[in-house]
Amino acid sequence: MAEAKDNWCLLDHHHHFELFEDFNSWIDEGESEQAIKILEDLGIGNLSSPSKAFYAGDKAAYEQALAAFRLENRNDALSKDYFLASLGIEDGTHWFERNEQRLDQLVERISEDLVVPFIGAGVSVAGGFPTWANHLRQQGRTAGIPHQLLEQWLAHGQYEQIIQYIEHTHGADAFAQEIRDVFSKTGKIESITLRISELFKDTLITTNYDRLLEHVFDTGAESSVQVINGMSEMEPLDPEKITIIKLHGDIKNPRKCILGKSQYDQAYGEQALDFDRPIPKRLRYYFRNSSLLFVGCSLHNDRTVHVFNEVKSSSGDVDFPQHFAIEQAPDSIAELINRNSQLLRLGVTALWYPKGEYGKVEAILRLVKNELNFRRVNGGTSQ
């Protein structure tokens, strides 16, 4: 009997049903006007799982409703209304369409297992940690840096200038201890971290000191995670484990963290970038050989960006993999055009979301997951 049931499910493609988790939950919760109308029209609102009854009872209608749901969620995650309202119909449509095209390009590369996520401090904010800029703002205030000077340095991405000031004025130990106090706590696993864990099961790179990524991949059994300190030499990756490369160290071993300017100099090079050192060498390898997806990263004036710029500018006409970033849209069209060009010169294709609407980052990652599932059902295409 079990074998007959399995065959029936395969023949009727019921195994595809589980791939549309968000749509099925939307139906089952029945909170929107559209979902309520579907439940009422079909008379299935009193069932424990209306979405299953919908799929089994009228698959064509289910697929039609799914297509409408998919379009609405795609428009929302890629901020169609925002672009039209803030940039006008013509420019807004242009930049929204860029988001659509770039989303499809990203999904294509993830489907081919070509993408390595590069996780910055913005991801850890949801888990209860400050962004790196806000942490430096707190440290700067504690150190007595004049407010105007502090904000000027932050606005221009001169983070190491702040670190240097604090270390010179109060000593390196004071700066390092504040980092330990802030980042050694156990953070909360929130939706954005879960989306990352759903999409990527191989290698992840992060500049974060905290252990959110380790916790989200922790199954409770024998460790399935390999953590590599960025300062170590290029050790082989364990193919049986998820590898997290912590470029600037792990707060679990603070003595091996890059916490101050002198340590940054030691890691990247004192006078110029030194590609014989582990971190620049590792960054160059992944920039050349993988499509990086920057999530929660500022991509302004920091050492990692210097590495990528140097690698790209020194390589002539070499074709690099397409890299991606989920990036806040600047306030004006002129600033958006300028920032888009800056990132493209770096080799990075941006997907834009409204400034300050950080929930859109998780929404874009969720959309990527759903688009990948849709491709699985439709033979690898988005159509």
What does it look like?
This protein has 383 residues and is α/β, with parallel strands linked by helices. The protein has 3 domains: 2-77, no CATH class; 90-128 and 187-377, Rossmann fold, CATH 3.40.50; 132-183, no CATH class. It is 56% helix and 9% strand. It has a 7-stranded parallel beta sheet with strand order 3-4-2-1-5-6-7, sandwiched between helices. Helix 8 runs parallel beside helix 10 (159-170) and helix 15 (278-289) crosses helix 16. The model is unreliable at 1-5 (pLDDT under 50).
Short structural description:
The chain has helices at 2-11, 21-29, 33-42, 50-57, 59-77, 80-111, 121-125, 132-143, 147-155, 159-170, 172-183, 191-199, 212-216, 261-268, 278-289, 303-313, 333-346, 359-377; strands at residues 115-119, 203-206, 225-229, 242-246, 291-295, 323-328, 348-353. The protein has 383 residues and is α/β, with parallel strands linked by helices.
